[in-house]
TrEMBL record:
The lineage of its organism: Bacteria, Bacillati, Bacillota, Clostridia, Eubacteriales. The keyword RNA-binding does not apply. It is a multi-pass membrane protein. Multidrug efflux pump. Belongs to the multi antimicrobial extrusion (MATE) (TC 2.A.66.1) family. This is Probable multidrug resistance protein NorM. InterPro entries: MATE_fam (IPR002528), MATE_MdtK (IPR050222), MdtK-like (IPR048279). Keywords: Antiport, Cell membrane, Ion transport, Membrane, Transmembrane, Transmembrane helix, Transport.
Length: 462
């Protein structure tokens, strides 16, 4: 007698997954499309501008990881308060996240503007690459505060099952960004030809448009969670304590992860410009695949958080099993996709034959690890986030990255002089180990946390 797989049978569940996953995947694709097209356009100018842009973006990658960590901590609370229907608490959590993000963004922007060359020097020893990226880095630093507000707000309202608004805002801002970057790089549409510096100016203008749209929606158009200026000045000790309880481990986890990604750049940066360029091209294909994981993990976080917030723990467990099945399907699909499109994407780059050959092999390696990446993404940024298991995420991701894969990769690259491709494989094993642990962690009940407070407790402090 055949045994049915224990998965969600309610069609409404799959409708919710699609309504969240598709906009989230499209938004992720839009974000990566800007990076991808910038890489392709700058690649047409040569390897130095392309590598300079990749290196100069590392500080932004770090600070955006910090913002994401703060917001993920807030999203844990928001998703579960959304399940309870408490929009007042949601407004205050969003305000706390924005205040913290803006403070960090201002401090980081000042540091980057004051010391661009030393910061670039952390990631590359190539003077030509550093010199080419200094002006780019200074201009892009001006976008940090605007991005802090926009990113925090849009990630927060996703936890209220509103993925459509962030998608529409990004359709506008990223579309403008791509057109401006093309115009400034090559001197089109009557704009001056500015190369890599033009990309920074285009990004700054597009971020300004995005910021304006976010303010209008946040203060005027969001009828479900209408923010007020007073929300940003009110002090809420209980919610701030809860926010930091979950934001602190999420923030540390994201910081450790993004610093780890930057450490990967340090490794490749010292293996030569050819390796930097090949890894940059391979990362484009990796990002194309990862947009599907962003959609699935984002949807799982919101849906699981809402279900736990409503008090239906048994259904949350069933939904977890369903997401496991969905992750396998998405992983297999992305593996096939990368292998099918790799030759076309490689043909778009003006790179040396040895760079082309190395990039081709890196893309194949990425494709092989797509299933592992699907599960790593599902647990680390999806199920365990929505369930409130933030502290455990911090512990195991830190141990795996910095206690296992990173030391082995550094030793392989600098002590044992392994080839760049072998080092690349070692680093990708990080996804597989995290995926396996995440699966084992969510087999019981320990990963499910109730993180909300009763409304009377929040009112009592007032």
């Amino acid at each position: 007698m055949s045994r049915k797989i224990a998965i969600e049978r309610d069609q409404g569940f799959y409708g919710s997954v699609l309504s969240l996953a598709i906009p989230l995947a499209l938004q992720s694709a839009l974000m990566y499309s800007v990076t991808t097209l910038n890489s392709i356009m700058l690649g047409a100018l040569g390897e130095i501008p392309m590598s300079a842009s990749a290196i100069a973006d590392q500080p932004f990658n770090i600070v955006s990881g910090i913002f994401r960590g703060l917001t993920l901590g807030g999203a844990i609370l928001i998703a579960q308060y959304w399940g309870k229907g408490d929009t007042k608490a949601i407004r205050r959590v969003i305000a706390i996240g924005i205040r913290c993000s803006v403070l960090i963004s201002l401090l980081t922007a000042i540091l980057v503007i004051a010391f661009p060359a030393p910061i670039m020097g952390v990631f590359s020893t190539d003077k030509a690459v550093i010199d080419a990226g200094i002006d780019y880095l200074r201009i892009v630093a001006l976008t940090y505060p605007m991005f802090a507000v926009s990113n925090c707000y849009m990630l927060s309202i996703r936890a209220t099952e509103n993925a459509r608004t962030p998608l529409l805002i990004n359709l506008l801002s990223y579309g403008v960004n791509i057109l401006l970057n093309y115009g400034f790089i090559f001197g089109k549409f009557g704009l001056p030809e500015m190369g890599i510096t033009g990309v920074a100016i285009g990004t700054l203008l597009a971020r300004g448009i995005e910021f304006a749209c976010v303010l209008v929606h946040m203060l005027c158009l969001n009828k479900k969670v209408r923010m007020k200026l007073s929300d940003f000045v009110k002090r809420d000790k209980l919610l701030f304590k809860d926010f930091m309880t979950y934001a602190a481990p999420s923030l540390l986890s994201e910081m450790i992860f993004t610093i780890g990604m930057s450490a990967y750049s340090v490794i490749f940066g010292r293996l030569g410009t050819t390796t930097i360029a090949a890894n940059t091209v391979a990362e484009v294909l990796h990002r194309i695949g990862s947009v599907f994981f962003a959609g699935l993990s984002g949807a799982s976080s919101v849906i699981i958080g809402k279900t736990i917030g409503s008090g239906d723990i048994q259904r949350a467990k069933l939904q977890k099993k369903t997401f496991n099945v969905l992750a396998m399907g998405v992983g297999l699909f992305t593996t096939a996709l990368l292998l099918v499109i790799k030759n076309f994407v490689l043909s778009l780059y003006n790179i040396a034959p040895e760079t082309y050959a190395m990039a081709d092999k890196m893309i194949v390696i990425n494709a092989i690890f797509m299933i592992a990446f699907a599960y790593e993404s599902l647990y680390v940024t999806g199920l365990q986030v929505g369930s409130g298991d933030a502290t455990n995420i911090l512990i195991y991701t830190t141990i795996i990255m910095w206690g296992v894969t990173m030391p082995i990769a550094f030793a392989g690259a600098f002590w044992f002089k392994l080839s760049p491709l072998v080092v690349f494989v070692i680093l990708k094993c990080d996804y597989a180990v995290k995926g396996v642990y995440g699966y084992l962690r969510t087999r019981g009940d320990k990963w499910i946390k109730q993180v909300t407070r009763d409304e009377k407790d929040l009112q009592a402090q007032e």
